[in-house]
User: What shape does this take?
Amino acid sequence: MGAYILRRLLLIIPTMFGMLVVSFVITQFAPGGPVENYIAQMSGQSVSVSEGVIGNAEGDFAGQNVVKSTDQNENSTYRGAKGIRPEILARIEKQFGFDKPPLERFFTMVWNYVRFDFGDSYSRGVPVIDLIIQKLPVSITLGLWMTLLSYGISIPLGIAKAVRDGSRFDVSTSTIVIVGYSLPDFVVAVLLIVLFAGGNFLDIFPLRGLVSENWSSLPWYSQILDYLWHITLPITAMALGAFATATMLIKNSFIDEISKQYVTVARAKGLTEKRVLYGHVFRNAMLLVIAGFPAAFVGAFFGGSLLIETVFSLDGLGYLGYQSVINRDYSVVFATFYIFSLVGLILGLISDLMYMWIDPRIDFESRKV
Assistant: This one.
């Protein structure tokens, strides 16, 4: 087992390197970028240096003539650079680190990422790691609670549906599951807001934030209640679709295992139905569910929480990544992609180890990878 874990950990290195290569190459051909956005900002303003609109710090280029003539930089690779003095354009490139060749920029980025040094945000002018740490609690909260709630409901419900396949209970619960699966998260979120957050009906839950403004002054038990009060609607909206998918997966997996011959043999030996179900079927049927756990968690951690964070005004990593893509803030985009990819690979290894914990018959040492 130790050799397998070591091999998997070593495989993370080329995998992450390949992901960074593909992402970096794509951004080189994508239109726009931090320099062009910066130039657009300059052009959108009156380009009055006295207003301090140029540079991350006010007055970076104060006292300089930004626009010299309309025929300069006609051949520039940056859109909108016509009329910008070459020395000013060179300083802007240097400010964002684009004054170096792409290959040198890439390997510098890789070396920094190995040390978890993600640099500064192009659009916000603050260290990327500080932004990630600031937004991380929101995404962790949504991802963990959604995963725990959806699996906590779907596992017992899926088993019950499998055991009672075709019964009235199975049909009635399938209706709820299908409705939950067909409704997108953001539609459920809007519906919950209309019904329970000051819409046309009840005004029970808050619309924004994870905690109230006076949360720090509340006693510990009130802090817990306030926190749960704020996350009820967003977690419900996220968990509904996830619980529906997981429920059907678990049901079908259990039905498939129950029909196998070893279950018939176990029943013939006189084992109780509960012993057959949880002593034999459970560990085999749950292997498929565990295999999809890393993808489900990472999806909830990032993609699944994006719309929910937007609807409920929760400033997490999903919303940060979306804003960074729109603003071509490559430093934040690469950093969030790097972190989510790394987390996904590590969770993939953990899920394999959970395979063996559930079913000791699985032997990873016999595998070459």
Observations:
- The CA atoms of residues 16 and 341 lie 7 Å apart.
- The mean pLDDT is 76.
